[in-house]
Structure prediction request, 350 residues.
Amino acid sequence: MTSQRKFIDCHIHLYQWFDPSGRSFYEVLDDLQQKTGLERLCVIADEYLEWGGVEQNILTALYKLHNPTAYANGCVVFPSAPVRLPLPDGMDALTQYEELMEIGMDGLKILCKPDIEKRIALPINHPFYEELFAKAEEDQTPMIWHVADPESFWSPERRGRDCYSDGTYPSFETLFRQTFDVLKKHPRLAVTFAHFLFLSDRPETLELIFDHYENVSIDVTPGTEMYVNFSGDLPFYRAFFEKHADRILFGTDATVPVRADAEERIHSVYHAMVTGDTVLMGRVRRPVQGLALPQGVADKVLRNNFLQRWGEDPKPINQRALKAYINKYAHMISHEETKKQILLAAKKLG
Prediction:
């Protein structure tokens, strides 16, 4: 896709060094940017224990060093699950935040999915995080924050993947309460809630949140239900996007290098914003109609709001700080081939 409009993806995941065909994440992301026409991109890390937040933090930093158009959001990491406090010396949340900022991370990623919260057993409103949030609020550090999942995932009728109805997972309401416990204490946090905060069916709630928290925004990273809701009432949602054009960011949840649909996701979300065409969205390829946002609104969503929050240029990587981080946390890297490649890369850092 060659777009006449510049656009930035605020929500790309980067998990490991090689894709199944043996291409490095450098090659995969460079190719993705070239094929989609992304002006810039923000790669984000998660504390998924299967993939490991440590390697994600390192990979995103290495990619920033490689690509001057890349931003990165890092995450807090844990040595085990469930989390046992206190963590080892030097792993408190504030120290980890300061390490990420010293490396040159552009922001933070907060993940409050029910399966992760169940595993780590450390809710986001726990005092462990307090100093981190206080400093991030003071610094106005931008963050992408994933809260819950579609409410339908708690339905007893749901089967298979992402089913949370057995009573062992925190509820949809609990995850929201914990999140807004933090926002009430730190109302100026520069938060972008992922996936429309899974409230695309309750836009009145989003408007109340916008009214209460001046620095809160949302992204259009696809959720299971979002674009179906948009398509079901296009005049209303076009008006919603126009009214709140300064609070909505473009994002796709593209995942590299372990999933093959990253390019398709970026195409789909872009066309759903700027055209009125029918777009196939999500894993199940649901047909939805694009919003055809007016150009002024689209430009804010596609790039201007990101630059307003993250800055006109990515922060530079401090190679010495990155090398120190690798040396400190290498023992926690879970994927052996990725660990091998990271240790080789560390030798080349200044």
Q: What stands out?
A: The domain at 8-346 is CATH 3.20.20.140 (TIM Barrel). The first strand starts at residue 8 and ends at 14. The chain is about 40% helix and 15% strand.
